[in-house]
Design a protein that fits this description.
There is one protein chain. The protein is mainly beta. The chain folds into 4 domains: about 1-70 and about 380-425 and about 515-548, baseplate structural protein gp8, domain 1, CATH 2.60.340.10; about 70-185 and about 365-380, baseplate structural protein gp8, domain 2, CATH 2.170.290.10; about 195-355, Thrombin, subunit H, CATH 2.40.10; about 425-515, no CATH class. Helix content is about 10%, strand content about 35%. It is built from 6 helices and 32 strands. The chain has a 6-stranded antiparallel β-barrel. A hairpin with a 5-residue loop joins strand 6 and strand 7. The longest helix is centred in the N-terminal third of the chain and has 17 residues, at about 5-25. It is rod-shaped and about 125 Å long. The chain starts with 6 loop residues before the first helix and ends with a strand.
Length: about 550
């Protein structure tokens, strides 16, 4: 028994998380100051508590720096791309290609979806975007067919690409599903393509090309002169039920179904009466034309039209003239010719062509980028500027990074805003005993009974300002009254060799505690790594790609 977790669930979960980010405060937390080893992150309450308790600093993630991400499939010569097919699970497949500045004329990055791969052939030439291509479908010299999806500027690509992933565009409808967005009015799919299941085996289909010798009559009669040495069949109504496809000198084309047909033995011309109004449609007197088998389409949508191409009696291709809309079920077939076609006769070489229509994703290709490109990743991007670096620890190391939702901060603070862009979680003290503050040294405080009430680590020392910074100070101790830490500014700090560090008086003016309310916030993500050493010139970028 098969069980399928659809990509729709994944993409909707991704959407919900993005909405959560836009409506809440998310921070990148830097944690676990170490000099010799890493603290392994695990999905356990102890690990999450330890991560929060060892926070060094945090950087707010802006909504504008949060991106939907898809896998980066750069276009490569001789690569084989998977063509779109509504019966294939395309997740994890290379069914689209990103054409970069080195391979296009636009100087940016453009994403194209493969609609046809020439029966599994190699891609030799990349599609090149053109503003005048109305349907944004491109057929390249290697017979690939591509659909343009979206573009991103080079500077946006450079800022937000992560290893193996690129962002979706900055602005697009993230939820065009009418069930979730009443403003969306598109239901169902378009006709994307029609595959010929037996392209080599089908046989027996007549066709003919020629020209119109006069303008169509008001009653829909078209007179045809065959091209070159081709000849029209003389049998009455031989072409009835087939289609005539006309093309004017300006390239405008029309297709009509043939109702009746007669042959003029004197001129060798034929006259067909069509269903439609070719004269009112503007079909020219000298338009090119072809008589071809009719493609019949039946489904629950409307508007789709296709025509056949025939070579030496074989239907070799089906061209979509109008994709229509609103389809969830569609069948396609080529109407049997009225004469000289007997596929059921065991002595005949005629073979009926078999067609399989392919429906696009709901709304058509490019309508719903998240669902269509199997987006299940989100980038959280944070960066430390020079100004940020002046507010946080500029030296030492850390080995854990994470994402925390809605950390709380002291309200009406004189130090930072309610939800600061960046915060320093260390305790800052000013002391004339600065010579006893050694970076990396463990320190503590004792009560009157010599019982330890506070522990921490000297994270940074500024001798010129008699200033030291204490980190890793959250331990199993009772907090001070009306506070969330056990640190007491009025009590001496004792270093590892027993020297006492006294905070200058008045202690309240020479102590700054973090505005972050300790242990607050929900940990959504943690990662440990080999300790990263910070310096005064450090300018980190954090690109966290989360998968759903």
């Amino acid at each position: 028994m098969a069980e399928v977790l659809t990509t729709k669930l994944k993409s909707d979960t991704t959407r919900m998380f993005m909405t959560d980010i836009q409506n809440n405060d998310f921070y990148v937390f830097i944690s676990s100051v170490t000099t010799d080893s890493r603290k392994t992150a695990t999905n356990a309450q102890y690990s999450k508590n330890e991560f929060l308790e060892n926070t060094v600093f945090g950087k707010k993630v802006l909504g504008s720096d949060t991106k939907f991400m898809i896998k980066y499939n750069p276009w490569q010569k001789d690569a084989v791309y998977v063509q779109y097919d509504d019966r294939i699970d395309l997740e994890g497949e290379k069914f689209y290609a990103v054409v970069g500045p080195n391979d296009n004329d636009t100087g940016d990055y453009r994403v194209f979806k493969c609609l046809y791969n020439n029966n599994g052939g190699k891609s030799i030439a990349p599609p090149n975007w053109n503003a005048y291509t109305t349907d944004q479908i491109y057929a390249t010299a290697d017979k690939y067919v591509w659909k343009f999806m979206y573009a991103i500027e080079s500077n946006e690509f450079e800022a937000y690409n992560a290893v193996g992933y690129i962002p979706l565009p900055a602005e697009f409808d993230i939820n065009p599903d009418p069930n979730a967005n009443s403003a969306a009015i598109i239901y169902g799919s378009e006709l994307s393509d029609i595959f010929i299941e037996n392209p080599v085996d089908n046989n027996g289909y007549p066709s003919l090309s020629g020209f119109l010798t006069a303008a169509p009559s008001n009653s829909g009669v078209i007179t045809i002169r065959p091209r070159g040495n081709q000849t029209l069949n003389q049998i009455q109504n031989y072409y009835s039920g087939m289609s005539i496809y006309t093309t004017n000198s300006d390239g405008v084309s029309h297709i009509y179904k043939i109702d009746t047909y007669t042959f003029d033995t004197t001129s060798g011309y034929g006259r067909v009466r069509v269903i439609g109004t070719p004269r009112a449609d503007g079909v020219e007197f000298n338009a090119e034309c072809s008589i071809i088998p009719t493609v019949e389409l039946q489904g629950d949508g409307s508007g789709c039209i296709a025509k056949s191409e025939v070579v030496n009696g074989q239907v070799t291709n089906i061209i979509i003239l109008n994709p229509g809309s609103g389809y969830t079920n569609l069948t396609a077939s080529v109407k049997d010719p009225e004469f000289d076609f007997a596929p059921e006769d065991p002595n005949s070489v005629d073979v009926r062509v078999e067609l399989r229509p392919i429906l696009s994703p709901m709304g058509g290709h490019g309508y719903n980028l998240i669902d269509e490109l199997y987006c299940s990743h989100i980038l959280l991007y944070g960066y430390i500027t020079e100004a940020d670096n002046n507010q946080i620890g500029t030296e030492s190391s850390y080995s854990n990074i994470g994402v925390v939702k809605n950390p709380e901060f002291v309200s009406a603070s004189a130090n930072t805003a309610n939800t600061p862009d960046v915060f320093d979680n260390r305790i800052k003290i000013i002391t004339d005993d600065i010579i006893y503050a050694i970076e990396g040294d463990a320190v503590n405080q004792l009560d009157a009974s010599n019982k330890i009430t506070f522990t921490g680590k000297i994270h940074e020392v500024d001798d010129t300002a008699n200033t030291a910074y204490i980190s890793n100070y959250m331990g199993p101790f009772a907090n001070q009254a009306n506070n969330d830490i056990s640190f007491d500014p009025t009590t001496a700090i004792v270093n590892s060799t027993g020297q006492r560090i006294i905070i200058n008086s008045p202690q309240a003016n020479n102590t700054i505690e973090s505005d972050y309310i300790q242990r607050s916030g929900q940990v959504y993500f943690m990662e440990d790594f080999v300790p990263l050493v910070r310096t005064r010139t450090s300018r980190e970028e954090y690109k966290l790609v989360l998968e759903f």
